[in-house]
Amino acid sequence: MARTVVITGSTSGIGLGIAEGFAAAGDNIVLNGFGKQEEIDAAVERIGALGSGSVIYHPADMTKPDEIEAMIASAADTFGGIDVLVNNAGIQHVSPIEDFPPEKWDRIIAINLTSSFHTIRHTVPLMKKAGSGRIINLVSAHGLVASPFKAAYVSAKHGMMGLTKTVALELAEHRITVNAICPGYVLTPLVEAQIPDTAKARGMTEDEVKSEVLLAAQPTKEFVTVEQIAATALYLASDAAAQVTGTHISIDGGWTAK
Which is catalytic among the residues 57, 153, 185, 235? Predict the structure, then answer.
């Protein structure tokens, strides 16, 4: 029986890769995110062709609680419930703390942390009614360790770790698991976009940022792939992970082992 999987921030990057993984497994997918309409339409069609499930798109803005509520309601109305919620939406800004624009702080906290509070609070009643569910939070190695010039992002991701653990404890007797995936650096559009700002902040070239900042953090000296993250999400949504809850899986090339 096909599951219904809601994935925020899934029109590109990691979220899109996770959507592809679940679609290939035959699940119904609710895509969400920004982008040009023709690109979103193409993604819906392409993902729908990967498996036997259905794919819909909802344009909810992750800074607007009422739109988040509408997205969850739409998913439930369309498919009869939600089996898997993947909180993936995220943005980044790189700046020294004294120059960090307050509006950037507010937006990052809203999208990277607060949006997950809203998706979870609206999804949990549906999962409780169904008697099971999976909540998967895409966090980051920055949920475990810090890096300079990323005050808002690191704060939001640390908050996501606390949210993951708290909700896992609340739902432990309801057959609903809550876990975090903490990837290292993946060459997604989000990461590529922050390279110029990091170069400016550190007085480096963009190539130096890749080799001396990004991959310097990962002992394997290799970027994590979207496919590896998708496979981990599929595991956490499987029966094999029924007793895995309130924890995280790091996919960071050894970064947080140091």
Answer: 153
Confidence class for position 231, pLDDT limits 50, 70, 90? very high
pLDDT digits (tens, 9 = 90+) for 42-65: 999 999 999 999 999 999 999 999
Inter-helix orientation angle 115-130/151-171, to 10°? 20
How far apart CA 93 and CA 20 sit, in angstroms, is 27
Look at residue 217 and give its three-state secondary structure: helix
Alpha-carbon gap, residue 3 to 80, rounded angstroms: 10
Where are the domains positioned within the chain? 4-185+224-253
Alpha carbon separation from 140 to 100, 135, 222 (Å, rounded): 21, 16, 16
Closest CA to 6 of 167, 90, 151, 116: 116
Task: For CA atoms 20, 26, 32, 35, give the dihedral sign.
Answer: positive
Q: What is the CATH number of domain 4-185+224-253?
A: 3.40.50.720
**pLDDT tens figures, 167-194:** 999 999 999 999 999 999 998 877 788 8
CA distance 134 to 116: 14
pTM: 0.94
Sign, Cα dihedral of 119, 125, 129, 134: positive
Whether 153 sits among the annotated catalytic residues: the reply is: yes
Closest by CA position to 226, among listed 5, 63, 22: 22
Tokens at 193, concatenated: 């976009």
